[in-house]
Each structure stands twice: as C-alpha cells, then as structure tokens.
Amino acid sequence: MHILVIGADSNYAIERPYVRYLREVKGISRVDFFTAQNRFLEYYKKSILHKVLFRLGLSSILRKINQDLRDEISRNIPDAILVFKGMEIFPDTLQWIRAKGIKIANYNPDNPFIFSGKGSGNKNISESISLYDLHFTYNLETKKRLEDEYGAATSWLPFGYDIEKTLYDECEKLGEINELCFVGNPDPDRASFILELTSFDIPITVYGHGWNNFINNSKVKIGGFVAGNDLWKILRKYRGQINLMRRHNLDSHNMRTFEVPAIGGIMIAPNTTEHRMFFEDGKEVLLFNDAESCAEKARKLISLSQEDSKRIRDAARERSLASHYSYQHRAELVASELKKL
Fold it and tell me: Residues 216-271: pLDDT tens digits?
C-alpha cells in the first residue's frame, strides 16, 4: 500500500512519528510526505510584505501549494492519503482527489468545530469535513459530533508518546525536585488556574513562551521554553506535572496525557472522561475537579516519601507500555484503518 501524508515536518509536529512508524508497518510499501504547512510558512515568514499580502487575500501561495499537491499526486498516485489538519488544502483539491478514486483520511489534532487560535483552523477545514472518507480524532465528543452531524466515518485515535528507551533510562537517573511544574505556553485560562493554585500556597514552576506577560507572582517561578530532550527531563524530574485542558478539549485529553506518564512523571490532570479511561486515579495519575482539589492532591503528593512517589511513577510508566500508548502502536492502528478504505 502506498500512502501520501500531507502535513507539517518540524521538530514538534505530530506527523513525524506517524510518517516514521507507518514506514515500518507490514504491508505499507511506500509513505511519501507532502509538507504543505512548511511550504506555507516558508512563504509567510519570508517578509512582512508576504504576511500583508496573505492577510489581505492577495497572495497566491495556497493556490500554488494545491497545484503542487495535484502535480505530486499525478506523478505518484497513492492508494490513500492522510491529511493532518488540512488548513492549506482547498475543498476543490479534495474533490479532485476523490474523482481519481483515491481514498482520503483526515486527522485533526485540534478540533474541526472550535478554533482556539489562528493556527487551529480555517474555512478549508470547516468546508472539507464531508469530503473525507474517514476522520481520525482524539476526542470522543468530536467523534460523536462528526458522526451525528455529518454521517462521517470515524476512528478514535488518541494522542501518544515517542520516547527512546535510552532517553527514558537517562531521565530515570535524574534527581527529583519536590515541587509542581507546568510545561506549556500561557493563555488567560491557564494563567488564571495557576494563580488560583497559589492562593492555596502551592508553589509552581512554569515553562513556556511568554509567561511573564501573564503572571507576576512570587509563588510562581518562570522558566523559558523547553523542547527536545530538555522537555522530557523537565517532565520527569519535578514531583508533579500539572496538565490543563484548553477550551476545545475540556472533557478529552492532550499530548501531555501520555507524555508525562510515559517518561515516569506524575501527572496531576483534570478528571475528564478520557483520562479515567486511560489511567487509574490515585495509582497511575492524580485527577482533580477544580483548583482546590488539585491543590489538595498536590499537597499530599509533595508530602509523600520518594519510595511512595516512585510507585506512582513506575505504575504510570508500566501502564503506558502495557496499554500500547506509543505512537508506534498508534501508527499501526492508522495503517489498519487505511487498509480498510
């Protein structure tokens, strides 16, 4: 089977592990990667003029990307196409692909109905929902809405993790900081929750871009942006990692849901339907209902002995492995669904 993946190729792009592991799946003969988002960003970030032209609707960059995609498909006709998000792809391009008898699946790691920022969606996503043969979605509420409102074929595809065993072993040897941590960029909701935690005398360190613009509080230490191996080390070495949902996935989960337990961190997360499905509260993770219950659980966690905290860390890691939460296993699920189309 020949698959064409359309999306972004960057250090933080979820597409990367999928492309890598799809190429390892038995029965997949070829996986090509059309980097639509990279092509757009290369144009958009090149100059202020390009940004102005695009915002005024005077740029031809998306037309060029779509024509390049058609040319690529005409040269190397795939059996199936997997579009990640799809902000750069016109609905008429998808119709052109369908007319060729090529099956198309979509995986949106945000939400096709709620756009929480300029990079989370646009009309190409809204107007293309009915044009896909299959929608992968991490969010069970979104899955139901796609089925109920569009009669769409769907497959639940939760987020996952991708950690080399050697990196895990390195992180396991790190000394522990018996404090709370949050890793992620700020927004008003996140900042409000963090500040509410401080009202319960819970100190916390936050990492990400721009926290100084949201918080000025002596109980909150502000670190910078972390990525790569440094990210995994931060997720591991603090006693507790706060996880917060955004408005588009309030009762769902996110990437940290699997990254923190997989590296042996202790996740303190909202008590969502999906979190309860993935992990056992009190044994593998700690789940809270509001800032007060979060503070209560955090206080108990910080008071634990290292031996007791290690039990939670080990249980979280073991659950991640035993339940096949890695992106390698997620890619196998994707391949299986694409073969059915």
Answer: 999 999 999 999 999 999 999 999 999 999 988 889 999 999 999 999 999 999 99
Predicted TM-score of the model (pTM): 0.94
**231/303 same-domain check:** yes
Q: Are residues 150 and 184 in the same domain?
A: no
Instruction: Spell 169-199 as b/e; 16+ CB within 10 A means b.
Output: eebeeeeeeebbbbbbebeeebbebbbebbe
pLDDT the model gives residue 12: 87
Task: Give the contacts of 67 (CB within 8 A, at least 6 positions apart).
Answer: none
Q: How far apart are CA 257 and CA 197, in angstroms?
A: 20
- Same domain as 248, residue 334: no
DSSP-derived letter for residue 176 is P
CATH, residue 124: 3.40.50.2000
Q: Which residues of the chain have pLDDT under 50?
A: none
Which range marks the domain in which residue 134 is found?
Answer: 2-160+326-340
Residue position matching structure tokens 């987020």:
159
Write down the mean pLDDT value for the chain: 96
Distance CA 23, CA 247 (A): 34
The DSSP secondary structure of 104-131, one letter per residue, reads EEEE-SS-SS---STTS--HHHHTTGGG
Phi, psi of 290 (to 5 degrees): -160, 180
- List the one residue out of 2, 192, 196, 167 whose CA is nearest residue 80: 2
Q: Percentages helix, strand, coil for the chain, rounded to the nearest 5? A: 45, 15, 35
Count how many domains the chain has: 2
User: 134 with 211, same domain?
Assistant: no
Question: Do 56 and 21 share a structural domain?
Answer: yes
Of 269, 217, 263, which Cα lies nearest the Cα of 241? 269
Instruction: Say yes or no: 211 and 155 in one domain.
Output: no
pLDDT of residue 116: 77
Q: Which pLDDT belongs to residue 26? A: 96
- Distance in angstroms (rounded) separating the CA atoms of residues 139 and 324: 18
Helix, strand, or coil here: 161?
A: strand
- 148 CB burial (10 A radius; 0-12, 13-18, 19+): exposed
